[in-house]
């Protein structure tokens, strides 16, 4: 759980649109998440209902809204290119150290990357078990839509802080494991989730 002093470290921001520094992160030893990416309490310009999740992809931010038009802002990584899917969802499931397997669309796009899940692979008969190396990290919130059920989109953890603040995923939003554990404790089943549009993006696809 993130300590309260860390959540409040950034003070009150004047707007939801305060930009976070973004860009590709060089691989190498000793990478630490920049202070700007730490969760912080902010005051929102746009009036939002408390108890909702809002992902603003253009500034790589996720907001957990609070009473008084405040929110806790987390830094996230988002879907790359046109794999980001704006829309309104709800949390239909939530899991600690969730198992994972690639979606059929992911297997079709890049079968070599997911060879372990194909015939003869390490996980051909099922799922990759939860753990520190699992792509969903320490916690996952499963995004559903009425009449559709599970959309295969997740808000989840990662053990790679270099993927925060960049468009890198297959459509999901990711937080470092420490931050997603904190978020997970706040967010109940049924929570409304809004993935806001990405500027300049073409049609999203699966």
Name the descriptors:
mainly beta; two-stranded parallel ribbon; 3 helices; disordered N terminus; nine-stranded mixed β-sheet; 206 residues; disordered C terminus
Q: If you had to describe this structure to a student in words, what would you say it looks like?
A:
The model is unreliable at 1-28 and 202-206 (pLDDT under 50). The strands form two sheets. The chain has a nine-stranded mixed sheet, with helices on one face. A two-stranded parallel sheet has the order 5-9. It contains three helices and eleven strands; from the N terminus they run αββββββαββββαβ. It is globular, with a radius of gyration of 17 Å. A hairpin with a 4-residue loop joins β2 and β3 (61-66). It is mainly beta. The longest helix has 10 residues, at 177-186. It starts with a helix and ends in an 11-residue tail after the last strand. It has helices spanning 4-7, 104-109, 177-186; strands at 40-43, 53-56, 61-66, 70-75, 78-79, 87-96, 139-145, 149-158, 167-169, 173-176, 192-195.
């Amino acid at each position: 759980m993130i300590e309260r002093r860390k959540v409040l470290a950034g003070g009150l921001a004047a707007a939801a649109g305060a930009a976070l520094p973004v860009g590709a992160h060089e691989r190498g030893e000793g990478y630490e998440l920049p202070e700007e990416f730490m969760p912080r309490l902010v005051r929102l310009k746009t009036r939002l209902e408390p108890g909702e999740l809002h992902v603003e992809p253009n500034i790589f931010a996720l907001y957990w809204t609070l009473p008084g038009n405040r929110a806790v802002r987390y830094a996230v990584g988002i879907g790359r290119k046109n794999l980001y899917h704006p829309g309104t969802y709800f949390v239909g499931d939530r899991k600690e150290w969730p198992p994972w397997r690639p979606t059929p669309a992911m297997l079709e796009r890049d079968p070599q990357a997911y060879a372990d899940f194909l015939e003869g692979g390490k996980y051909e008969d099922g799922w990759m078990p939860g753990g520190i190396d699992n792509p969903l990290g320490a916690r996952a919130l499963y995004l559903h839509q009425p009449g559709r059920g599970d959309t295969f989109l997740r808000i989840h953890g990662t053990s790679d802080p270099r993927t925060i603040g960049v468009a890198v995923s297959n459509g999901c939003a990711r937080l470092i494991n420490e931050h997603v554990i904190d978020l997970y404790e706040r967010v109940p089943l049924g929570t409304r989730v809004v993935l806001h549009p990405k500027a300049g993006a073409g049609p999203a696809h699966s």
